[in-house]
Amino acid sequence: MADRGFKCIDVLLNKIDCVLIRPPSVSQKSKSTKDDVLETKRIASLRIHIERVIGRLREFEMLKPHALVNCQLLCDTDEIITIVCGLINLQQPIIKQ
Predict the structure, then answer these.
(1) What is the C-alpha separation between 2 and 69, in angstroms, rounded?
(2) Considering only Cβ atoms within 10 Å of each terminal Cβ, which end of the chain, N or C, has fewer?
(3) DSSP character for 60?
(4) What is the largest CA-CA distance in the chain?
């Protein structure tokens, strides 16, 4: 999922069988259709939850913005993020039902 600004990564993601979800592009010359407006709202409502998860990630000292990471840990960064995501999954749900 990405903002409208990520226009050139479709090809790269398709190569690894990923689907990019982003709001429909808006041209200043044409008016958005009703379906485009509904799709944009649907995606925006889902992106709010993603931003909340990113906020939880940044609660961890190593993943805070501008955090200094020991260069010896760089090769383990993927595994560290996977563990942090697992810990976040054990927290209270983002979406209250």
Answers:
(1) 26
(2) C
(3) S
(4) 52
Rounded CA separation 13/61 (Å): 30
Residue 7's pLDDT band, with cuts at 50, 70 and 90, is confident
pLDDT in tens, 23-41: 776 555 667 788 888 888 8
* Whole-number pLDDT of residue 26: 55
C-alpha triplet 50, 48, 28: angle, nearest 5°? 110
3-state DSSP assignment of residue 88 = helix
- 96 to 30, 48, 82, 87, 93: CA distances (angstroms): 38, 13, 24, 18, 6
Model confidence, pTM: 0.67
